[in-house]
Structure formats: C-alpha cells, structure tokens
Amino acid sequence: MSNSILGQIGNTPIVKSLVLNTNPNVELYFKLEGDNPGGSVKDRAAYNMIKTALDSKAITKSTKLIEATSGNTGIALAMIAGVFGLDIELVMPETATRERVQTMKAYGAKVTLHPDGIEGARDYAENKVTNEGFYSFNQFANDANWQAHYKTTGPEIWRDTNGAVTHFVSSMGTTGTIMGTSTYLKAQNESIQIIGVQPTDGSSIPGIRKWPQEYLPKIFNSSKVDRIYEVSQEEAIVMARRLAKEEGIFAGMSSGGATTVALRLAKELKEGVIVSIICDRGDRYLSSDLFE
C-alpha cells in the first residue's frame, strides 16, 4: 500500500538539535511526526485502530462510529475513515482551534463540540455507545493504539539511531505513543530511559494531560515509564516559539512541552542520545495565540 496516502504514515525523519541543545556530550534528536499525511503522530494509532477493527469485523461500512478527541486523533481518524468509506462523528472540547474543526470537516467527519472539556466529550461518546448503538475506538483503552507505536515508532527510532538511543521523551495524553515505544525500546535495551511529560497543576496544554484517576487511560502502565517531568503552560508556549524561530521546527504546544523536558534532561546528563517526539505541525494552532 506504499503508493496510497495510508502508505505514507510513519517513517518520519529525526533531525538533530543544532541550537537549543548546548551540551556537547549529548545528542538531542527530534522525531518529526508532523510529516505524517494527517499532520501528527496520531495517524499511526488511528490507522491501526481502524484497520484492526475492520479486519476483526468489529466494524463495517454501515457502523456508526464516534470518538472523543482533543484534536489530532480526530483529524487522523477523519482522514483514514474517509479513505475506507466510513462515517464518523468526532467529539471535541469547544475550545478546540478552528483549524482542527475545519480539517475534520474537510475529511468528511461530523464534528460535535462539547462545553465540558475532553472529559465531557468522553462521557458524551460513551453515552452514545451505550444508548444509541454507536461504536467507539476508545483510544484510551484500545490496545491497537499503543501497538501502533510498538510496530512502527519504536523500531524507527532504534533503526535511525543505530541502536544508540539512551533516552526517549514523549508528552502523555492517551499515552499510546509512550507505551508502545517504551515496550519496543525496552525489549531492545532495558537500560533505555523512558521519560513522560505532564502539565503542572493549572496548566492547559493541548495534547498533554494529567488525568483524574477515573479518566486515567486503561492502556497506561506506569512500570513502562522511568520518570515523569512536569512542564508549565508558559514553558511549553515559549519553547514552541523557540523551536520555530531557532530550530526551524514549526510545531504545537505539546511539542514545546516535550522539548522543554528534553533540554532539561540534556543538561543533567554527562552523555547520551535523546529522542523527543514532535507531535504535530504548528499550522493547526495559527488561530490561537500560541505564536503571537
């Protein structure tokens, strides 16, 4: 399927930090997930969740699909559902950027905005599954989410660093990226350190969450994360702007958060090879004040 748009998912480049990392004994690489056709790391999970459900006959073209999302997963699901001829309703917080909503609609999805944040969106979707016969991929509890990264993201990082990676840094939302990549990398070398990124209390960073216990993703396994760093909203904004201006990497706030932590880590280490995920592209934040 390499000639189709779906065949372009994955195999994203990693590029070396030329400016922000100032420790000469540490190499810091950014994995550019915005190069996926849907513009984010979520293309990987969305494709694997849809393909797994179709292959297992859990869904057909007549199934009513619904999913709660903060944005990137919804765009990926809308794009891939369209290719497979599936109809899907996507439920997002009403604070979602205009670009996100328009992109999902462009791919043919129905978009519902919910006033009570991502938790409210998740409750709304679950209610439709329970009472109206909808099917949800439930990315927060779907093993096909993390398995996508076990099959693709982890092997790519191992391959592209020639097995030299010592630390992997990822923002934590559904936790699929960090769970799957950790599972693969630890199987290659158990000493590789897996670093998760969460927001400080009171910070709002799209794509990164510190979940209340009742909403904690069921796919999350704390034993697969060695350390968790917290990052503030202000730090994530400043770093997203610096990534664009100084490294030429145009990305969203969650990538600014992950980069903040990757740079903290680089300063702590005597030596190492860090790979940090750049989750998406900055153009889906232009209607916000991120780059003002």
Kindly summarize this structure in a few lines:
Its EC number is 2.5.1.47. The chain is an alpha/beta fold and 292 residues long.
Briefly note the CATH topology name of the largest domain: Rossmann fold
Measured on Cα atoms, how large is the radius of gyration? 18 Å
Any idea what the CATH architecture of the largest domain is? 3-Layer(aba) Sandwich
Backbone structural class: alpha/beta
N-to-C CA distance: 40 Å
User: What percent of the residues sit in helical stretches (DSSP H or I)?
Assistant: 25-40%
Tell me, briefly, the overall form. globular
Tally of alpha and pi helices:
9
Number of strands: 10
Oligomer: single chain
Q: In percent, how much strand structure appears in the residues? A: 15-25%
Q: How many structural units, i.e. domains?
A: 2
Provide the spatial order of strands within the biggest beta sheet: 1-2-10-7-8-9
The low-pLDDT segments are none
CATH class annotation of the largest domain: Alpha Beta
Overview of the molecule:
Keywords: Amino-acid biosynthesis, Cysteine biosynthesis, Pyridoxal phosphate, Transferase. This is cysteine synthase. Its cofactor is pyridoxal 5'-phosphate. Its EC number is 2.5.1.47. Belongs to the cysteine synthase/cystathionine beta-synthase family. This protein is an alpha/beta fold and 292 residues long. It folds into two domains: 5-40 and 145-285, Rossmann fold (3-Layer(aba) Sandwich), CATH 3.40.50.1100; 60-132, Rossmann fold (3-Layer(aba) Sandwich). It is 38% helix and 17% strand. It is built from nine helices and ten strands. The strands form two sheets. A six-stranded mixed β-sheet has the order 1-2-10-7-8-9. Helix 2 packs parallel to helix 3, helix 5 packs across helix 7 (176-188) and helix 6 crosses helix 7 (176-188). It is globular and about 55 Å long. The protein starts with 13 loop residues before the first strand and ends in a 14-residue tail after the last strand. The mean pLDDT is 95.
